[in-house]
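pinned: reference chain
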Amino acid sequence: MADLFQASDPVGQPLAAALRPQTLDQVVGQRHLLGDDGPLAQMLAKGHLPSLILWGPPGVGKTTLARLLCDQVDAQMLTLSAVTSGVKDIRAVVEQAKQAQAMGRRTVLFVDEVHRFNKSQQDAFLPWVEEGVLTLIGATTENPAFELNAALLSRARVLPLRALDAEDLSALVDRALATQGQTIADNARQALIAVADGDARRCLGLVESAMDLAGEDGIGLATLEPLLSGSVRRFDKGGDVFYDQVSALHKSIRGSSPDGAVYWLARLVDGGCDPLYLARRLVRMASEDIGNAEPRGLQVAMDAYHATERLGLPECEIALAQAAIFLASVPKSNAVYVAYNTAKAQVQASGSDEVPNHLRNAPTKLAKSMGHGAEYRYAHDEPEGYAAGVQYLPDGVGGDFYQPVERGLEIKIGQRLARLKARDDAYDLD
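pinned: its C-alpha cells
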C-alpha cells in the first residue's frame, strides 16, 4: 500500500497532516483491531459502530481512526475537546445530532482527551448515547478504568491502540520520503525509528525536518544529529506508562532478573523520573521481596537512597543501578511482607486487645500493685537466651504470622525458630 499512497495536499501543511490516511486500508499499525479477525473489522463488516473509547499513547492515530470509522458508516462527525468544552457545548452538539437524526443521518461525536471531562460532563452524554442520538468515540491516553465513570464505560467499548512498531514506522518513513523523492541511509533510518519511539506524528515530523536539511546524497546520520539531540522516550509522569515501567522494575527484581532490573531503571531515569522516588521504591522492594532472606538488601538500598539524596543526578545513577542489580541477584522472601499484612489484618479484626500483665511496664507502685510485670521472665537469664513457654500475644490472638522460606538466611532463621517452638511445646507439656 505504501507505494500507492499519495499525500493529500502537502502545501502549507505539516507532513503528518498531509499524509493522514484517507481510508482504513491506508492506516499503518493497529493490525490487532483492523485485521480480518480484529474487532473493528468485524463490527464494520456488519455495518455496526458502537460507542468506543480509543485508548493509547500519543501519535498512534486515535483521531484519524475515529474520522475514518465515521466515514465508513456515513455519519456526520462532530468534535469536542475535553480541555476547552463544557456541558453547554455538549448540549449544543446534542441539538445538532437531533436535527441530523430527524433527517435520517447518524451523528458520531468525537471527544479528544475524554478523560479530562469531570463526572457531570461525562454524565451529560449518557442519555443521548443510550437513546442512540449520539455515537460517542472518545480518545484518551489515560487508563479508562481509572479516569472514566462506570456508567459511561458500560455504554462504550474500550479499544486499546498500540505504539507503532519498527516495521510500521519504516513504512511511514517511505511514504514521507516519496513526497520529495528523497532517500535515507539505513543507519539513519534505524536511528530515526528508534527516536520516534512508536509515535507516528513524531516520526513524520523528524522526516520532514530531515528532508529540509538533506544534501545531494539524501538523509544521512549526520543530517539527523541536530534533530535527535535531547530526544526523549515516551514517558508520562504519574500516568499509565510511568506506573507500567515501575511495575516492570519491581517485577524484574522480584523475579531475580538483574538485566531486567537495570534496563527498567535506565528507562525510568531516561524518562525523567525523580531519582529519589526510585530510591524509595528500591528500599520498599528490599523489605517486601527480599526481607530476611538477605538482610543486606535493605542496607544496600538505604545506601543507594542516601547517595541519591546527597549527590543527585547523574552521579547517583550507578548507586541506584548497583542496588537494583544486587536486589535482583540475591535470594527472595516475602515472609516479612506477609507476616506484617497478616498481623495488621489481625489487629484490625480484633480491636484493642489487652496487653498481658507480665508484659506490661511497672514504673510505679500502683502499676506493681496491679500485677504489671509480675511473673515476667528475663530472656537473657534463660538457657540459650530464650524463655520457653512465655506468651507474647494478647489472649485469643493466634500466632504464626512469620513463616520463613527455605531461601537465603531465612533457612537458618526458620531452623532456629523451629527449635524454639519445640522448646515451647515441651514446656507446655511440663
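why pinned: The two ends are 87 Å apart (CA to CA). The CA atoms of residues 245 and 268 lie 7 Å apart.
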